[in-house]
Amino acid sequence: MTLMRIREINACPKHPRTTVVLEDLDRQATLTFYADRDEARRLTQEIARRGCACHPIYDFVQALLLALDGDLTRVVLGDAGGRGIGGRVYVRSGGSELGVPCYPPDALALALRANVPIYATADALAQSERVMPGDRGESPAVAQWLARVRPEDFSAHGPQDAS
């Protein structure tokens, strides 16, 4: 399994669906799937929440886990048998762990709320797009700058003169 993070969420103005894009930590692969606009809205609300807002369904899940002495441990996205990407949340309770199917945007929102890792299976990544070096959305000028920039370029005194 590969550790992933959410890269972007885009609502399509012409269609009733939203695109969710994840990327691996090395930015070598992206995993994209479509979500119902209402389901994705809950995910974007959770991203924007910053600890100050509530969402009834996620609050309920947290209360249920607390009542059952359970902890969310991770979220795994995998192939849903030719029907796209499926989600599974893993809950530990009483010394055992159980994977529970969950709609992917809700699984991602729960992972963010519980601060647990998000993984993609090899089957899910087989549907992913490999990102070619220099094809990460930056302009050619930015790509050239990134290729030559050094850590010392960011020091308070600028690059050290060797003379």
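(ticket continues) Second input and output from the same batch:
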Amino acid sequence: MNKLAVRALLAVVFWPSLFFFWLLGPFVFFLLSTTSSELCPLLERRDQFLVSANGTLPMLVLQNLVYAVPIVCLVLWDRLLPELGRTRQISTCIKLFAAAAAIGALWEYGSSLVCDGYGQPFFSPLWQATSYLPIANILVNVPLYVLVFSLGRIFSMREDGPTDDAVRPEETI
């Protein structure tokens, strides 16, 4: 495969994963990974809350693997067309992604422990502080989204412009 075909294939994977996984995915995964409100009143002991919260861990791992698809595409694009400035930006994306993944997982795990307020007496007030993590997550995700979107746009655009030999429409008259 030539480089242009690989770049096009990566673009076909990158853009849908960016929009569907990063923009719609958080809502879907959050609903799937937290303890449901119907289950919360049934939990009476600390160990039941822990089992319920620990049951969310596989979903959190899957969520972060799915979210990593656009970052992997950027790394592969950078392998095809290496440029020092873009490589630095991609390493920044990876660092921001790691921070966002850790904050998001801690928030979702903590919200499973607190369980919409029902689990508060069983756990440290520190877990209640996880309700503020979405603010930190937004502060990390906004620059991450902007950087990933701009890098994706740069990488998915064709670099070959019109050649000097080509006849321009305004020159034909």
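Agent notes: The first helix runs from residue 3 to 33. Confidence is low (pLDDT under 50) at residues 161-166. Closing as not reproducible unless the customer responds.
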